[in-house]
């Protein structure tokens, strides 16, 4: 288990040794693809309280993140039941479904006081996450210091990186000043303007990924983009994650400290190097 606070490990032995799951889950998933509701491209609701997520390395990375967060914080995360890889390279993560519903879907039904309380709870969990000390100070990578899985950074897995400068350089495809492009030079200057603290980061903190029930935050899900990242990353990626609910972005400062200059920097980088607005 990833149970060492200082050094999150790369394996989940007590979860991956149960051969019965390897035997039963893959055929169940093949059948469930046709019969059961999907919560995402490779996420299936097997029963009202049981979810399976399957895919490549990013699923294992997410399992390690969930395991580490569950051991080192009070943040409510899905309970892992089994994590294993089959001979074809597919990783399966079987987990309990967090109770409640996504906060995004019911936020407008809450009273102002209920909404304030929900964001106060979320702020507490975010502060707890960001208070964790990086086991390898200065480095950027997944929770286990493996590759990062986020197409807002690069296509495919990337990293880990020895420092934030290397992370920034990779994201701008090694461009340096003078790049021949004024906006690119501005992005590079903004990236180089200060030192960055490394924070434990969810990386996709949309209200779709926050479950709520009876006045309480009951789950924070979808940790596949989690890692040790620069201090601004949670805010800028949360802003990006509200793509389907831009009207709710005004609520982000209720649970995350804003980084407005870095948001401008990241929006320009994504436009220049990821080809989208």
UniProtKB/TrEMBL annotation:
The Aminoglycoside phosphotransferase domain, residue ranges: 56-248
Protein name: Aminoglycoside phosphotransferase domain-containing protein
Gene3D superfamilies assigned: 3.90.1200.10
InterPro entries reported in the protein's UniProt record: AGP_Transferase, Aminoglycoside_PTrfase, Kinase-like_dom_sf
Pfam family membership, one: APH
Highest taxon in the source lineage: Eukaryota
Secretion signal, residue range per the UniProt entry: none
């Amino acid at each position: 288990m990833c149970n060492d606070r200082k050094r999150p490990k790369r394996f989940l032995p007590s979860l991956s040794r149960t051969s019965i799951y390897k035997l039963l889950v893959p055929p169940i998933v093949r059948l469930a693809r046709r019969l059961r509701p999907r919560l995402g491209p490779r996420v299936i609701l097997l029963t009202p309280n049981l979810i399976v997520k399957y895919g490549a390395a990013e699923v294992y990375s997410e399992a390690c993140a969930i395991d580490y967060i569950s051991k080192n914080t009070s943040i409510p995360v899905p309970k892992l039941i089994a994590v294993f890889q089959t001979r074809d390279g597919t990783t399966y993560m079987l987990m309990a479904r967090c109770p409640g519903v996504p906060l995004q879907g019911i936020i407008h039904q809450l009273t102002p006081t209920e909404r304030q309380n929900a964001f106060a709870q979320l702020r507490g969990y975010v502060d707890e996450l960001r208070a964790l000390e990086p086991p390898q100070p200065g480095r950027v990578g997944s929770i286990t210091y493996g590759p990062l899985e986020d197409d807002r950074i690069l296509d495919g897995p990337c990293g880990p990186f020895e420092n934030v400068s290397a992370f920034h350089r990779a994201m701008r495809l090694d461009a340096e000043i003078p790049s021949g492009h004024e906006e690119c030079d501005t992005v590079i200057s903004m990236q180089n303007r200060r030192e960055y603290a490394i924070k434990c980061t969810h990386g996709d903190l949309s209200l779709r990924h926050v479950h709520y029930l009876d006045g309480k935050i009951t789950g924070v899900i979808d940790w596949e983009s989690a890692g040790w990242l620069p201090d601004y990353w949670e805010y800028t990626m949360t802003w990006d994650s509200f793509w389907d609910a831009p009207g709710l972005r005004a609520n982000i400062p209720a649970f995350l400290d804003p980084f407005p200059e870095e948001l401008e920097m990241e929006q320009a980088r994504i436009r220049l190097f990821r080809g989208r607005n």
